[in-house]
Amino acid sequence: MWLMPANGGDAFPISYGTHDDTNPRWSPEGTKIAFISNFTGSTAIETIEIPGGAVSQLTQSEAKYFRFKAPIGRIRVVVEDESGKSTSARVSLVDGAGRFCYQESSVHADDGFDRNEQPFERHYVYVHNGSDFIAPQGDVTLEVSHGLEYFAERKIIHVEARKSQVVTVRLKRTGAPWPKTERWASGDLHVHMNYGGTYWMDSKSLTIPAAAEHVEVVNNLVVNKEQRFPDIAYSATGNIRKRIC
Question: Which sign does the torsion angle of CA 224, 229, 233, 236 carry?
Answer without folding.
Answer: positive
